[in-house]
Amino acid sequence: MLMSPTDGSGEEGVCEASHSDSIFSRLEELRFRLEQQMGFEKFIEAYNKIKAIHEDEDENMALGSSLVFSTLGTEHQHLYPNILHLVMADGAYQEDNDE
């Protein structure tokens, strides 16, 4: 049963906590699947390159993307959007926790 925030039960945080837990769970599941498909080493290498590109505003995006695609190889290039999603979600999570 979902409680409304004004019912005085103190349950309003439960829905919010389960929502963030489900987001975290989905992200961890995505990370796990990517590691399984690519292998841990290749996943980490691609993840770190994508993260570095997004953190460095001066980086040439086209050059950075070509480096990532060369790391992924043709076999895993289709996974780029999933890795990018994970990098961006991790970045948003860290920004929220830095405040």
Automatic annotation (TrEMBL):
One of its GO terms (molecular function) is ATP binding. The keyword Acetylation does not apply. Its EC number is 2.7.11.1. Keywords: ATP-binding, Kinase, Nucleotide-binding, Serine/threonine-protein kinase, Transferase. It catalyses: L-threonyl-[protein] + ATP = O-phospho-L-threonyl-[protein] + ADP + H(+); L-seryl-[protein] + ATP = O-phospho-L-seryl-[protein] + ADP + H(+). InterPro entries: NEK_Ser/Thr_kinase_NIMA. This is non-specific serine/threonine protein kinase. It comes from Champsocephalus gunnari (Mackerel icefish).
